[in-house]
Each structure stands twice: as C-alpha cells, then as structure tokens.
Design a protein that fits this description.
Strand order of the largest sheet: 1-5-4
Distance between the termini: 19 Å
Order of helices and strands: HEEEEEHEHEHEH
Strand content: 15-25%
Bound molecules: guanosine-5'-diphosphate
Number of helices: 5
Structural class: alpha/beta
Amino acid sequence: MGRSNVGKSSLINALVRQRVARTSGAPGKTRLANVYLVTRGAAAPFYLLDLPGYGYARAPRRSGRVAVETGGAASPEDARRASQAEFEAIVRVVFERRPAGLLLVDARHPGLASDRAAWQWVGASAERAAVIATKIDKLGRGERIRALRELESVFETSVLPVSAVTGEGLDQLWKLIDQLKTSG
Ligand code: GDP
C-alpha cells in the first residue's frame, strides 16, 4: 500500500518482470484494488494485494471488486472524505485477515502525514510489516543517506530502498517478502 503515484504499480511490474499492474501517468484516475496470485520457483504461492493508493480518489463499489475513481462527488472536500472513508473500509476488511503489509513511501518525501497515518494502520493491524522507500534512483548519494535516516527515524524501523527503474533493492525485497510470509 502507499500514496497514489508512489510507484506501486511500477514496483509490482518490476518485481514480477511483467506488466501486470497498470501504471498511472495521472494520479487519481480509475484504480482497482488488484489481487495477484504470485507463484515463484519452489516457494509457496501467495496472494499479493495491491490496495488503491491513498491521497486521491473515491470508491463506489461494483460487482465483487472495488473500483476507485474521481468525479461525481458534490465537492472536492466530499470526494476527499468519501475517499478516506472508503480507503479505511478496504483496509479494515483486508487487515482483518492479518496479512503481512508493505508500506511504500516516496524516498524524496520522508515523513508525510498520510504515510505516517498509513503506517499506524498497518502497524496496528498487520502482524508483520515493513517500509519500502521507492524511486531511490532519483536521489544522489548524500540525499539518499539523509532521506533513509529520516525515514527510519519517522517509522522507527529499517527502511528498504528500491528502484523500479534500475532494479536496485528488488532481490532484497523478494527476501523480505519471503521473511514476512513465513514469520508471525
Ligand atoms: P502508483 O500510482 O503508485 O501505481 O505509481 P506508478 O507506478 O504509476 O508510478 C508513478 C510515476 O512514478 C510514474 O511516472 C512512474 O514512471 C514513476 N516511477 C515509478 N517508480 C519509479 C522508480 O523507481 N524510479 C523513478 N525514477 N520513477 C518511478
């Protein structure tokens, strides 16, 4: 899970080396909560839930799946409230199942209020959770050290830097996913 535009679809595609998740050029357009069954080598298969990005969008419900789209609300404020309520409803249902959680945050924007709120959700409900810093390729060496230090202090846990563009961190992310799957 993560904010709209954090790079979640790109990361999923990079991880599985296929275009399964649709990347969003413009944030806030129609977006589904996707479920993938991931089978990888001899490892046990698992379900990967790609939750709608928070920060935009509202979510009317459609036959069995959750569609999230903008527009149709009386005002931007209504849309924001509806979006938040729908997002929390989805998160509640998902986390009742006690899954492992990965929170994606943009390496360039450490400590956003919405990300901190999301971490409380994940931390409050998920047995096992980790924070991933996306788009790390966009930072120079000094910036990168500063950003990771700040992220680790905000979230009080180690943060794994990744890039869907260069592939950095993807092997470590698979290892982390394997650990989260089997612990707890
Ligand atoms: P989502 O809304 O979280 O699914 O985000 P997307 O995967 O659609 O990515 C949003 C934007 O960030 C797109 O323009 C991507 O090309 C860009 N992006 C995503 N991941 C990376 C990354 O690792 N590095 C860089 N430089 N850009 C990225």
